[in-house]
Amino acid sequence: xxxxxxxxxxxxxxxxxxxxxxxxxxxxxxxxxxxxxxxxxxxxxxxxxxxxxxxxxxxxxxxxxxxxxxxxxxxxxxxxxxxxxxxxxxxxxxxxxxxxxxxxxxxxxxxxxxxxx
Length: 117
Known about the structure:
The protein has about 120 residues and is an all-beta fold. The protein has two domains: about 5-40, no CATH class; about 50-110, no CATH class. It has no helices and seven strands. The protein has strands spanning about 5-15, 30-40, 50, 60-65, 80-85, 90-100, 105-110. The chain has a three-stranded antiparallel β-sheet, with no helix packed on it. A two-stranded antiparallel sheet has the order 1-2. The chain has a two-stranded antiparallel sheet with strand order 5-6. Strand 5 and strand 6 form a beta hairpin. It is elongated.
């Protein structure tokens, strides 16, 4: 998400029965919906760049799919992924790649990262 305030809605449905495949059967017995505003901080992504990944919860490693728009690729450039800790004022370079393609796939290992409270 880009930085700023975003209104999000969560809808939870409860069923009393499921089929053999684990899908709910019939109508839900209860539905609750709540809407809240989420405040996102950080730096807005550069237009056209995209990093796709799974949710970070309960993972020690995961693949990042990094898409680089053609307009931002020149004959000589580097892709640098950095972890920036604004609390400790530190920057850790995680990946540097010379002349990457339109899409790069990288296995991100978070086992060495500090757990935030």
